[in-house]
Amino acid sequence: MRNASPMSLPGSALPVQGPATTPPPLPRLASAYRTLEHGLDMAFGAAANPLKHLGALGFMLLWLLVASGSILFIVLDTSAAGAYQSIAALADVPWMLGTALRGVHRYAADAFVVVMGMHILREWLLGRYRHWRRAIWWTGVPLVGLAFVSAVGGFWLNWDRLGQYSVVATADWLDALPILGASLARNFLGDVSLSDRLFTLFIFIHIGMPLLMVFGLWFHIQRIALAKVFPPRPLAWGTFLTLLLLALLLPVHSQGPADLRSQPTALALDWWLLFIHPLVDATSPTTVWVLLGLAFALLALPPLWPGRAREAVAVVYPEHCSGCSRCFDDCPYSAITMVPHPNAKPGMRLAQVNSDLCASCGICAGSCPSSTPFRSAEQLVTGIDMPQWPVNDLRTQLIQSLHAMPGPERFVVFGCAQGIHSQLQAPDVLHFKLVCAGALPPSFVEYALRHGADGVLINGCREGGCEYRLGQRWTAQRLTGEREPHLRRSVPQDRWQVAWTDSGDEHRLAAALDDMRQRSRTATQSVSEESH
Amino acid sequence: MKRALNWTGQALLYGGFAVALGVFSRWPVYHPLPEDMAQIKVSFIHHGARVAECRPYTAEEQAKMPPNMRKAEKCERERSPVSIEVDIDGKTVLAHTSPPSGLSRDGASTLYQRLNVSAGQHQIAVRFKDNQKSEQFTSQIDETVTLKPAQVLVIDYSTDKGGIVLQ
To answer: What are the transmembrane regions (chain B) (predicted)?
Structure first.
């Protein structure tokens, strides 16, 4: 159920308004997936968790396929008569180099479809297909088809019994389409040896499709700023070594040269990539076309499914925008462009928000140097802000609520509404929930401390799990001074801390708060002892 | 200790992933055709006879045509469907009529059909008709063949080779 009621401040009569809406709790399946992710966090660490880098892993596997495939293409005899022998000869290359090359190419293809499937499942479970993500989702759908066409075509180039079965089965299946004038399967009748021209078509399919895929991937990630096309190094090495080891322990062998005068009777089938052939055999070509159409229709459907209304998008206030382009740098969805400032001062620029791309995360407001609460203006107007949770409201409510708290201890939690959904209920805690931790201008930490807070806890999603991709990363970097705007070094480090938590990590957030209380009391005690 | 556990966890997960990839990239073994079976592929691509006979243009029709377009005969484009019947050991296993392709029904008729049969000796009779006006089959053949396990026998029609071909 969605909790749209205003947050209640413990120990304060002042009702604090959070963002206009808070996200609904994760559905059960999504919650189960998060639990699985958290399990892998323990083994890999949150930053290198493979389940959080499925897109980047897919890219890496594609690069691996391109690299290994390029070498295989060099050794491949591109004639129907010579292809089999040229690939089979790889087994004779010393040091098992040929075996490794061939195995890595095959297993990387298998891994690619597994990773692609998991990537789709993850984004679907976490509901990441609506609004600004709609185009990203839809541009991914045809890539699934291209991946399988390319992968299946790879088996034909080897021109062994498996390739023969696959190509005949594919031709037979395509013949069920009413658009073809003549039967494709006639090209593979018993006494006919495959023509080199037809074999060239196989090569085009296996090489042309990945080229189309790279082009499609460019569309797929075009609306994502700083898209990761390579996973963290430990994960990349781990994956590569796993594939290499697998290639050496379970070498990929040819299954005898193709012979169209006989039908293969037993095949070590690659079920990850070729499952569609047995499916056609078990049903009918038409049935599988219908199933395939339904599968792609279902895949394209989620963005059209009714869901939460879109939040208000970021608004630029030209008179307060200096054109520094920090919001442009930090926006996770490339929703901001810099245009000439209407004040016509030479070289002066202005941020402009593309409302179609804006995720309403507020990371831009957190990046704006004008968002500092130390400005003397009574009404704090910043360069770029979120209408549903403006920085002026945050400043006003922070001051009023801190003053209204009974004390003696006062702690402020600037939290992310996407991770921990529950509200911290304690008389000494003022819990602000922002759309994303990245929406917090770091100077608010110092501001809260100067206005009576004993400690400030900044809470966002676990590393690599930010709902808005970069919010957690930018927040951590701003607080440690690696990114502008940064928290001043003069702010005592023992009076603020971070807690990166997801839904289900409530105990960790509570523990972080207890830790902060303890540190504050120890600090107060030592100051008291020194004064005596 | 925690580091060792992390490494162990990672090794198990990478290992599990590798096992899943390795196993299902070759197992279970698939049998597209049972070992004691053979396959007969019945296929042809053939233009049926013209539905209407060619006839000379009348003088009136010739006069209406531009001089450079005038020719002696007028031939309708539509082709006859092509029929084929296959009997194996006296039993009809395929009786099919393929319509001509194309919007004007002037293209070739095609067929590609697979039939799985047990390996061994079979009496195969094929009847072929490319003119539906004809009462008789245009071409027919009756042969005894011995099929080895997994062998593919193609039944085709080729005008160049004199009609029905078993290969």
So the answer is: 12-30
Predicted local distance difference test score (pLDDT) of residue A6: 35
DSSP A187: G
Average confidence (pLDDT) over A467-490: 96
Query: According to the model, what pLDDT value does residue A426 have?
Result: 85
pLDDT at A134 over 90: yes
Contact A183, B156 (CB under 8 A): no
Average confidence score pLDDT of chain B = 94
pTM (2 decimals)? Answer: 0.91
Is there a contact between A246 and B102 if contact means CB atoms under 8 Å apart?
no
Identify whether residues B39 and B19 lie together within a single domain.
no
Task: State the maximum Cα–Cα separation within chain B, in Å, rounded to a whole number.
Answer: 104
Instruction: Kindly report the nearest CA distance between residue B65 and chain A, in angstroms.
Output: 32
A410 confidence band (pLDDT: 50, 70, 90): very high
- CA–CA min distance A341, chain B (Å): 52
**Sorting pLDDT into bands at 50, 70 and 90, what band is B1?**
confident
- A111 neighbors A151 (Cβ within 8 angstroms): no
User: Per-residue pLDDT tens for B12-30?
Assistant: 999 999 999 999 999 999 9
Where residue A140 falls (left for φ over 0; alpha for ψ -120 to 50; beta otherwise) is: alpha
Give the model's pLDDT for residue A179: 84
What region does B142 belong to: left with phi over 0, alpha with psi -120 to 50, or beta? beta
What would the pLDDT profile of A167-180 be if each residue is shown by its tens digit?
A: 999 999 999 998 88
Shared-domain flag, residues B96 and B159: yes
Residue A3 pLDDT > 50: no
B157 and B101 share one domain: yes
> What is the span of the domain harbouring residue B16?
1-30
A104 belongs to a structural domain: yes
Could you give the C-alpha distances from B8 to A147, A221, A530, in angstroms and in order?
A: 33, 34, 49
From the list B6, B39, B45, which residue is nearest A182 (CB)?
B45
Domain that includes residue A511, residue range: 315-531
**pLDDT at A192 (0 to 100):** 62
Do A287 and A344 share a domain, yes or no?
no
Residues A350 and A240 in one domain: no
Taking contacts as CB-CB distances below 8 angstroms, the residues of chain B near A114 are 17, 20-21
Q: Does residue A421 lie within any of the structural domains?
A: yes
Query: Does residue A18 form part of some domain?
Result: no
What is the Cα Rg of chain B in Å?
Answer: 28
A267 → closest Cβ in B22, B30, B149: B30
Report yes or no on B36 lying in a domain: yes
Three-state SS letters, A143-172: HHHHHHHHHHHHHHHHCEHHHHHHHHHHHH
Question: What number of C-beta contacts closer than 8 Å exist between A and B?
Answer: 134
Mention every residue, 6+ apart, whose C-beta is less than 8 A from residue B19: none
Terminal alpha carbon distance of chain A? 54
Residue B26 to residue A272, Cβ atoms within 8 A? no
B106 shares a domain with B36: yes
**pLDDT tens digit sequence for B53-82:** 889 999 999 999 999 999 888 888 999 999
Name the residue facing A265 among B21, B107, B150 (closest C-beta).
Answer: B150
Q: Check whether residue A199 and residue A117 sit in a common domain.
A: yes
Q: In chain B, how many domains are there?
A: 2
Of the candidates B10, B18, B29, which has its C-beta nearest A43's C-beta? Answer: B10
